[in-house]
UniProtKB/TrEMBL annotation:
<keyword id="KW-0413">Isomerase</keyword>
<dbReference type="Pfam" id="PF04303">
    <property type="entry name" value="PrpF"/>
</dbReference>
<dbReference type="GO" id="GO:0016853">
    <property type="term" value="F:isomerase activity"/>
</dbReference>
<comment type="similarity">
    <text>Belongs to the PrpF family.</text>
</comment>
<dbReference type="InterPro" id="IPR007400">
    <property type="entry name" value="PrpF-like"/>
</dbReference>
<protein>
    <submittedName>
        <fullName>4-oxalomesaconate tautomerase</fullName>
    </submittedName>
</protein>
Length: 344
């Protein structure tokens, strides 16, 4: 089944419908999506990281958990399937998919499910409309980066055992740049845009054409990966790299995200949660640029609008903690049989 979740689009599978062997599974996903090929012309990928995603869902055997969700980032032009990150945008569609596939039943006018994100260990509570026992995708909620409106899907995320600041420091010096390494559901690196010679309001296309900039950002990313406990990230898509600048509109901060070689046209749910948590910590990169309101909603400006990230940050002794909530939308696009490219 193909569903849009938030500002991403992906292929959704039941876990039992894919090979149990990881190598066989990854090979199949590459052939389904049409990778490696920059156009993905021989598969169902959309030639962009935001549309070359896979979600795998199953019933959970963990106490108090309804569903298990695994995320796979299928590289567009390399034969790589990344598993080090999750996707908060596709998370919005996991519950509706489970009801559509009969994994779980709708419960009244609004179904609430507890979902374990297997990639990271986080747990999310997701609520979505199911009048008359069916998922209702229609509604009046608009999110920047998606045309039109749809039904609102509430997502509340609680972190696992991993620390909010993986190095224990509010900021670190990495490859000649001051950086804040933070993981509030998504490992990200916060950097100042002006340190890289940009204003921070450039379009994604302009930034992608700046080869020297991409190389410098990647140099920092490769150095940050091991510090965040991610090991060698040369073939992974995390951490996500954020260049921060002062807000241009009514938001708290302006962002441009490298994910990692392409620049995000908007922002992911968990990316926004990590950025919002970071700029609320005194001394973190971007905290001096941010315009923080008294409430918990932090407007994260991105190339196509503003993401309202509801994030609360607290400190116990020397340890920082965060919780986050967001409203996304999702839509079922296609349900059918996909034929993988023949083996070569």
């Amino acid at each position: 089944m193909v569903l849009r979740g938030g500002t991403s689009k992906g292929a959704f599978f039941l876990a039992d419908d894919l090979p149990a062997d990881a190598a066989e599974r990854d090979d199949l996903l590459l052939r389904i999506m049409g990778s490696p090929d920059p156009t993905q012309i021989d598969g169902i990928g959309g030639a962009h990281p935001l549309t070359s995603k896979v979600a795998v869902v199953s019933l959970s055997d963990a106490p108090g958990i309804d569903l298990d969700y695994s995320f796979f980032q299928v590289s567009v032009d390399e034969p790589v399937v990344g598993t080090a990150q999750t996707c908060g945008n596709l998370l919005a569609a996991v519950g509706p998919f489970a009801v559509e596939r009969g994994l779980t039943r709708a419960a009244g006018d609004r179904t609430i499910l507890r979902i374990r994100l297997l990639n990271t260990g986080d747990v999310a509570t997701v609520s979505f409309p199911t009048p008359d026992g069916r998922v209702d995708y229609d509604g009046d909620v608009a999110i920047d980066g998606v045309p039109g409106t749809a039904a609102g899907i509430d997502i509340d995320l609680t972190g696992g055992e991993k620390p909010l600041l993986p190095t224990g420091s509010v900021s670190d010096e990495i490859a000649g740049h001051r950086a804040t390494l933070i993981d509030n559901g998504m490992p990200v690196v916060l950097l100042r845009a002006d340190e890289f010679g940009i204003h921070g309001d450039e379009s994604p296309t302009d930034l992608e054409e700046h080869a020297d900039l991409r190389e410098e950002v990647e140099r920092v990313r490769l150095a940050a990966g091991p510090l965040m406990g991610l090991g060698d990230v040369s073939r992974q898509t995390v951490p996500k790299m954020f260049l921060l600048s002062a807000p241009r509109g009514e938001g708290a901060i302006s962002t441009r995200a490298f994910i990692p070689s392409r620049v995000h046209t908007s922002i992911g749910v968990l990316m926004a949660a990590s950025v919002a948590a970071g700029i609320r910590i005194p001394g973190a990169v971007g905290s001096d640029l941010a315009r923080i309101a008294d409430d918990s909603v932090t407007g994260i400006e991105h190339p196509t609008g503003v993401f309202p990230a509801a994030v609360t940050v607290t400190r116990t002794d020397d340890t920082w903690h965060a919780s986050s909530a967001s409203v996304r939308t999702a839509r079922k696009i296609f349900d059918g049989t996909v034929f993988a490219r023949p083996r070569r």
